[in-house]
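Researcher: Next entry in the queue.
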Amino acid sequence: MAVHEKITIAKAINASLRASMEADPKVLVMGEDVGKLGGVFRVTDGLQKDFGEDRVIDTPLAESGIVGAAIGLALRGYRPVVEIQFDGFVFPAYDQIVTQLAKMHARALGKVKVPVVIRIPYAGGIGAVEHHSESPEALFAHVAGLKIVSPSNSSDAYWMLQQAIAGDDPVIYFEPKRRYHDKSRLDTESIPDPLHKARVTRAGSDLTLAAYGPMVKVCEDVAKVAAEEGKSVEVVDLRSISPIDFDTVQSSVEKTGRLVVVHEAPVFFGSGAEIAARITERCFYHLEAPVLRVGGFHAPYPPSRLEDEYLPGLDRVLDAVDRALAY
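Model: Structure for this entry, 327 residues:
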């Protein structure tokens, strides 16, 4: 791979897995169809051929068993990377994740570590139905003991996964599936940002848009349209959902005085609520308008022909920007 090559997020994740497996023989990849098929999105394509069936393991269709086995492997010194085939398929493993994986380190008074990474292609935008287009990040962020991250570009996809694998904490790594084929530049020799550090991707002075994963590109497009209308919008890519880098968001809001939080998950009890509450507490005397949230509706994921109405897009985010600037 060229040092500054422009590649897709899917290929960046594949390259990241390959780099981690080459660096540490204890790194394993496991999940449904990750080996011979290379995953339903072909993200693990070629890994089993190069590293063998002992390190790239095709598992039965049993998410609870997959995660349970990964926990056992981690306790024996391995670093398993589990792929959940689709976001909605993670729920059979929810018990293993929240009652075992998340709590094992604290339960053992810090004497054991459970370095498991769970990769989950998540969110919509691919014309799939419920159980294949969910955004369950808030459910996991509420659980102490888990770290939750989501990249929005190829460089972050490459570096954040390696950082997650190398760490000793369990990490849920949410991959925005509709962005798998988005291309961006990857510098394999750069020094990556810390795993849980937010990043300002576009500077602005009138309003802050905060997002992660699939919504970052939407917010950047909104900022471009707003600029044509004479509005200066700053975009913050949160990158991490637990923990959240509130300091970067606070610094931006102290400058702009307004914040709109955008995520694809339903607004009701979503991660945007926590961000809105924290920033209201931290920036009360800087805010010129209430913190607004844009997201999905509190309803089951719709059939594909209604998907565009359900997903927060350019117009819905622009409307929130206009409402915040109208105060």
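Model: The first strand starts at residue 6 and ends at 8.
Researcher: Noted, moving on.
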